[in-house]
Design brief:
The protein is mainly α. The protein is built from six helices and three strands, in the order αββαααβαα.
């Protein structure tokens, strides 16, 4: 397989529809790239998630979801304004994004 063909195969991933149980709504998500994962999770990867504040953990979720959710497209600022009682839906989406990219192993000790 040629380099260009391989890169196209590895980077052209179609978004998928995901049903958010907590919101009873469908959203369209795309996998995040390695670079996006590294940027959004740099504090967690450096210090470990057990040493992070709630504000830092929510910030990571908000940034990750705002990058991966393509329909409806929402900004990090818009996600920051959701009702605290609806946060379970954002956490559900975040966990699905991490599972899509098989990033779980980065959080294991």
């Amino acid at each position: 397989m040629e380099k260009n063909e391989l890169l196209k195969k590895l980077t052209n991933v179609e978004p998928e529809v995901y049903h958010v149980e907590a919101w009873d709504a469908d959203v369209k998500l795309r996998p995040i790239t390695i670079d996006e994962f590294a940027k959004t999770h740099k504090t967690m990867l450096a210090d470990g998630h057990e040493n992070m504040t709630l504000d830092q953990l929510l910030g990571i979720q908000i940034e990750t979801v705002s990058i991966a959710m393509v329909d409806p497209k929402v900004t990090a600022k818009e996600l920051s304004g959701i009702d605290v009682n609806k946060i379970a839906g954002m956490t559900e989406i975040y966990e699905h994004i991490i599972a899509m990219g098989d990033f779980q192993r980065h959080f294991q000790k």
